[in-house]
Design goal:
single chain; 362 residues; alpha/beta; TIM Barrel; 2 domains; 10-stranded mixed sheet; two-stranded antiparallel ribbon; 33% helix
């Protein structure tokens, strides 16, 4: 539950400081109805207009009295903004660009794949984590996305109604904006909200342990953990978070939690040539995760400007996959999508910022 209506617009898209309808939870709608002199049951009516019908203008909510609609319209903003740019790849992947606070931009990637339609959403403007392989990390951190900002990526694209899955794997570290991310998960799953199964949602993390604990306790969504090396010094060189939250602590927390039969834990592993793609890495992973019911998504590295890292060959990816499978894990190679439209996180927004005079292109 949000503490106040004002809290719902932490990174507003405009100078209008009224709270936005998008991003409210049922208790917020109840307070809003009371402020508009509407009966308490109007909260569910408003929620239905916003999250079921995807209509955000109070004046069109025809099952509410006219005076109440006018009062609502004076109290709130819709909270929805269309993407300012869309680029489409040869493989059907689309990258959507949205404005954010401070003249910055965020991205969402739409990925169609046979009977699945997945949207990869951002949770922050930039990122604090500074991972060596990530273009977003090169930007630094520029602000948290509000509940409305995160949900707007889902509701404002043309494919919104046909989405089957959402993954929090875009710009930012979700567990570094945990309150707002958890609020979006509640809205996506609530019967008065989107009414989605948590099995349609995956949240990714580099391993921010306080956030991980809360996420496991308060959500039933799938978890994806960025691993990239099983060795402390090597992982720290790739992911500075390893300095604060070491991998054994992370794995111990995962081991101690009952994921049940349907909730999935997966590990993301980008292969870099000559760095993390050897037999000793396979053996250490098997030792570290022995007995953990998990799967591996092996990822081909999309080179970013000024990075010393090089992608492992396709042959090496296949070898690494086969070795993990022989160790008893389920490992697959994630198909590379949208490389021709800068689909890797942060590349498109950085390019747009540079074009508009907001910084150097990297």
């Amino acid at each position: 539950m949000n503490d106040s209506l004002e809290r719902l617009s932490e990174v507003p898209a405009s100078s209008d400081e009224r709270p936005s309808l998008l991003g409210m939870e049922l208790a917020d709608f109840a307070r809003l109805a009371q402020a508009a002199d509407l009966p308490s049951f109007a909260a569910k009516q408003i929620a239905k207009w916003v999250y079921t019908k995807r209509l955000f203008d109070p004046l069109v909510m025809t099952d509410l009295p006219k005076r109440g609609r006018e009062s609502l319209a004076a109290l709130v903003t819709p909270g929805v903004q269309a993407p300012i740019k869309a680029t489409e790849s040869r493989d059907g992947t689309k990258k959507y660009l949205f404005t954010a606070a401070g003249g910055r931009f965020i991205e969402a990637a739409y990925i169609p794949d046979r009977d699945r339609a997945t949207l990869c959403v951002s949770s922050q403007v930039g990122c604090k984590m500074g991972c060596l392989f990530c273009s977003t990390g090169k930007m630094g951190f520029h602000g948290q996305l509000s509940v409305a900002d995160i949900l707007n990526q889902i509701v404002s694209i043309p494919e919104s109604a046909s989405l089957t899955n959402v993954v929090y794997m875009g710009m930012g570290e979700p567990f570094d904006n945990l309150d707002n991310v958890l609020a979006t998960l509640r809205i996506l799953g609530a019967p008065w909200g989107f009414a989605w199964s948590p099995r349609r949602i995956t949240v990714s993390t580099v391993g921010v342990l306080p956030g991980l604990r809360r996420f496991l306790d308060e959500s039933e969504c799938h978890l994806a953990v960025s691993l990239h090396s099983p060795f402390h010094d090597e992982r720290r060189s790739l992911m500075p978070v390893e300095t604060a939250y070491e991998l054994p602590e992370l794995i111990a927390m995962i081991r101690g939690f009952d994921f049940g039969r349907q909730r999935r834990i997966s590990f993301e592993y980008i292969l870099f040539e000559g760095l993390n793609d050897s037999p000793r890495h396979v053996n250490e992973i098997a030792k570290l995760l022995n007995g953990v019911n998990c799967r591996f998504n092996l990822i081909a590295f999309h080179a970013i400007p000024d990075s010393p890292l090089k992608p492992a060959s396709r042959q090496r990816l296949e070898w690494f996959r086969d070795e993990l499978n022989r160790k008893g894990f389920t490992a697959t190679i994630r198909a590379s999508r949208g490389e021709d439209i800068l689909a890797a996180c942060g590349l498109l927004s950085t390019k747009e910022l540079s074009k508009r005079g907001g910084g150097e292109e990297i």
